[in-house]
Amino acid sequence: MGATTAAESVKQIHYLAASLKAPRITEAAVRLADQARDTGWSFEDYLAAVLEREVSARNASGARQRIRAAGFSAPKTLEDFDFDAQPAIRQQIAALASGAFLAEARNIVLLGPPGTGKTHLATALGVVAARQGHRVLFATATDWVTRLTDAHRAGRLPNELTRLRRYGLIIVDEVGYLPFEQDAANLFFQLVSSRYEHASLVLTSNLPFSGWGGVFGDQAVAAAMIDRIVHHADVLTLKGASYRLRGRGIDSLPSIRTTTAEPEN
Ligand code: ADP
Ligand code: MG
Predict the structure, then answer these.
(1) Are residues 138 and 11 part of one domain?
(2) Whose CA is nearest to atom 5 of ligand 1?
(3) Which of 115, 51, 63, 104 has the alpha carbon at shortest distance from 251?
(4) Is 263 contained in some domain?
(5) Which ligand is nearest to the CA of 245?
(6) What's the rounded Cα separation, in Å, for the pair 156 and 150?
(7) Which of 31, 56, 61, 233 is deepest in the core (most CB within 10 A)?
(8) pLDDT value at residue 183
(9) 119 alpha carbon to ligand 1 midpoint, in Å?
(10) 33 and 90 share one domain
């Protein structure tokens, strides 16, 4: 084949890739063709390699888009979590990192004092879900209640709950920082019920379950909700002093008993 023919083919690939809305294919096709000729790939190997580049590029940009859309308060990953500060949960997190909990619609509850990494881990698990193709939404418990209350007032709570079921993962951060009104507790209960055995929730709280009745203003609502949440759930308890305060010569906050603080100089 002459050079002109090859150039013609590249032009056609360029045109066809654009029609497929996969313009990156042109570059991969040209670059991999050289490699294929040099190393004697079969036609099948070559086609698979070109398509593989396109698929991984699409997955990566899909994951980036889903991570942006999730509304995380700060980008955090499992790779940048220091498990030496929380050795007791290393194994549990390693098991969750596969993302298998999402397919099983299992929930994850992260409990522990402030600064121990609950929001970090909740976000990191959200990133795992986004990388695996799940849509993710992150918000504080207070923000969720505002959102559900608005939907309820506008008469579209059922629609909103249905819409939210399309998200493979919903993260509710900071349950217990602020107490809810009775109405809010009921709305929140509906969110939990609508996802029960259908799609995953990750919740974080600085309170043990025994303190949730106070937050929801109703022991019965809290008990029914906790029952649904923990029926298929991993509960992880973080311990110790705030990671934020490490090395500041402050090794405890009021109400926190320090067990692992190692102030560094
Ligand atoms: P919490 O939500 O439990 O109050 P955060 O997850 O917000 O705590 O953690 C506070 C800060 O400390 C964040 O910047 C977080 O990334 C960091 N952090 C906490 N624990 C760890 C850890 N084990 N490894 C790395 N960073 C951590
Ligand atoms: Mg937090």
Answers:
(1) no
(2) 117
(3) 115
(4) no
(5) 1
(6) 9
(7) 233
(8) 87
(9) 7
(10) no
Q: Which domain holds residue 93?
A: 71-245
Nearest alpha carbon to residue 32 among 11, 12, 16, 54:
54
Q: What is the mean pLDDT of the chain?
A: 91
Alpha carbons 192 and 145: distance in angstroms, whole number = 12
Asked if the structure places residue 256 within a domain, the reply is no
Burial track 18-40 (b if 16+ CB lie within 10 A, e otherwise)? eeeebeebbebbeebbeebeeee
The total domain count for the chain is 2
Q: Which ligand is nearest the CA of 116, by number?
A: 1
User: How high is the pLDDT of residue 256?
Assistant: 47
Per-residue model confidence as pLDDT tens digits over 201-259: 999 999 999 999 999 988 899 999 999 999 999 999 999 889 988 866 655 555 544 44
Q: Are residues 45 and 138 in the same domain?
A: no
User: What are 66-92's pLDDT values in tens digits?
Assistant: 999 999 999 999 999 999 999 999 999
171: CATH: 3.40.50.300
pLDDT of residue 263: 43
Name the residue type at position 47. L
Tell me if 113 CB under 6 Å of ligand 1. no
169-175, strands of its sheet edge to edge: 136-140, 169-175, 200-205, 107-111, 233-237
148 inside domain: yes
* Contact call for residues 89 and 236 (beta carbons, < 8 A): yes
Q: Are residues 17 and 132 in the same domain?
A: no
In this structure, the answer to whether residues 177 and 54 fall within a common structural domain is no
